[in-house]
Amino acid sequence: MTSLLTLFVHACILIGVNSMLQPKRVKDTYENSCLHNAVFNFNSSSTNYLEPKCQTLFMDKYTEMKNFLNYTDMQMNYLYSLERAVLRKYEKKQNGRHKRQTGMMARQECRTLSDGARGALFGAIVDLKTPTGGMSRYDTIAGMHSFAAYRYAHLGPSFLGWHRVYLIMYEEALQEIRSDVVLCYWDSTLDFLMPGSTQRFTVAFSADLFGNGRGNVINGAFANWQLPGGGTLRRNIAADRFPGPPPSLTRPGIVDLIATDPSITSHTQIVRGGTGFTDPDTGRVHTWEQEHDNTHVWVGEIMQDVVAAPGDPVFFFHHTFIDYGWELFRQKINPNGNIDLRNDYPNVGGFHAPDAPMFGFQGITNRDGYSDEYTRMYAPHPTCSNGCGGSTQFLYCPDGGPMANPNRRCISREINSDLVPAAAVAPAAAMQAMAFGPEATMARFGPAATMGMFGPAAARAGFSPATTMGMFGPAATRAGFSPAATMGMFGLAASRALFGPAAMSRDVPAVGSARVSVEATDTVAVRSALSEPPPPVSGIQFQSSFSDSRI
What 8-state DSSP symbol labels residue 304? Predict the structure, then answer.
């Protein structure tokens, strides 16, 4: 009798709770439907296409977001027009089921793009940054990653879906400039695999790709990139973050774990707010979001600042790789594409609740971000078996070929982007760089670097063992100079030695007038790039969850 009474009481409680929740579910359903319709049919000049109740709701949300971001109506209209374009392009259904997007160009690792494709993409980014009508479209999109968005887009399961939709909006903006461009991803595991402490010399941060990695960005497509709050874009890659622990790039073992481990089969196991998985290197509970944090810290400067990070274009290349890693996991748990992964969205509350609207994307819920509708196609990461994605200019197979270990990842090539051609700065600086002697070398590089330029420690000054021979005679290449370059620094052939074929760096052909060069050292440019004091640390900072002892 007692057990029956207990069951009856429990049933009454469940019915009561359900009846309390039912009005909220109805309200959430109406709000989501209203906001979706408002954005899908967005008209910047009128909301008359909405019923009065929905008009009021939409305008309340519009005003709330406008105030959060401190944006003008022009900026708000631009964002809503982009979201409208995204909804209309990506919301495709077949037999009532969501399907993965097809027919679009696959996103590739940035180093595997052809020179033309990479130039078109980077050019579109620069165009997006250039103000039109007093508004920078790039800065408007970057500003969405605001403090207000932080609570909705980080520290929970919506991190994955929110950033996926964010990338799609950014890509849509670029395609409005050039329809043939797609985002590329920066697979930072290829840089993590660089031996010893050579990560700081990765070719990813050179003039042909993202621009130099230390100090003000003074070469490449994003040279002299101005930040919304003032100042020039700066980086400080692969540097100790004292008093904090050294940072780390994305570890290949973590990518492989979430992509292949058969025991990790639910989103709850890879997101914050869930159970997580065990980090094999630390033994601690870990998530894909935490692994993502590490690379933000490794790049440094504004990339380490949660709110300001999108001000560096590298943000979007990094997040495209995080999305790629997530897609590997999704394909593992849904190989046939016949499961609606929105149903695998973790059941959490608050800002990350499944049916809560995404901040900044009023027509999309957190759960919708897990839909295959927003999935993009990816080319596989560069391995020995796929010929490093066709990029022998920037990558190499460590085993010497596909027969040795076909599944092994390729590794980034090395170049010292702290050393730049004098021609990229000014004629006066070029003359000064040509003329310096031993004393000037000491003054510009310091005792340690001077010793490195004249002896076995040359590698510490940024030169590989292959270039070791000394600076003033038969051993000239110990400092990274060919005999022609050595003569050029002290004679009439100086300009040829500094800027001609003899002065071009190893492995990577010269491209453009501001080509990074190991031999053609303009210390004035280096000093200028590193001299501006870094901005004061403010706001929320990404934190490393793993320390790479090689840094």
Answer: G
In a 3-state reduction of DSSP, which class is residue 508? coil
Q: What are phi and psi of 254, to 5 degrees?
A: -70, -40
For residue 55, how many other CB atoms are within 10 A of its CB?
Answer: 16
Q: Identify the sign of the CA torsion 416, 417, 421, 425.
A: negative
HEC string for 133-189: CCECHHHHHHCCCCHHHHHHHCCCCHHHHHHHHHHHHHHHHHHHHCCCCCCCECCCH
The amino acid that residue 280 corresponds to is P
Do you find a cis peptide bond into 228, omega within 30 degrees of 0? no
Q: Domain 104-377 class?
A: mainly alpha
- Spatial separation of the C-alpha atoms in residues 191 and 200, rounded to whole Å: 9
Residues in the chain: 551
Query: What are the structure tokens assigned to 216, written together?
Result: 């003000």
Q: Which of the two residues, 497 and 175, has the higher pLDDT score?
A: 175
Q: Are strands 285-286 and 277-278 parallel, antiparallel or unpaired?
A: antiparallel
Read off the tokens for 48: 């008359």
Inter-residue contact 436 to 427 (CB < 8 Å):
no
Of 474, 475, 496, residue with least CA distance to 484: 496
Q: Count CB neighbours of 321 within 10 A.
A: 24
What secondary structure, in 3-state letters, does 231-291 show? CECEEECCCCCCCCCCCCCCCHHHHHHHHHCCCCCCHHHCCCCCCCEECCCCCCEECHHHH
Q: Spell out the residues 6+ positions from residue 247 whose beta carbon is closer than 8 angstroms to its own.
A: 238, 239, 241, 294, 295, 297, 298, 300, 544, 547, 548, 551
Spatial distance between the Cα atoms of 110 and 319, rounded to a whole number of angstroms: 12
pTM: 0.76
CA 434, CA 494: separation in Å to the nearest integer? 6
What is the tens place of the pLDDT at every residue in 425-458?
333 333 333 333 333 333 333 333 333 333 333 3
Distance CA 135, CA 146 (A): 18
10 Å CB burial of residue 37 (0-12, 13-18, 19+) is middle
Amino acid identity of residue 79, one-letter, is L
Coil/strand/helix, residue 419: coil
306: CB partners within 8 A, 6+ apart: 145, 150, 154, 539, 540, 541, 542
Exposure on the CB side of residue 445, measured as CA atoms within 13 A: 25
| Alpha carbons 394 and 379: distance in angstroms, whole number | 17
Tokens of 409: 């990842």
- Give bridge partners of residue 234 from the DSSP assignment: 216
| pLDDT tens, position by position, 496-506 | 322 232 222 22
**CA-to-CA distance for 373 and 93, rounded, in angstroms?**
8
**3-17 pLDDT tens trace:** 555 545 454 444 443
N- to C-terminal Cα separation, the chain: 69
d(CA 449, CA 462): 9
Torsions phi, psi for 6 (to 5 deg): -65, -45
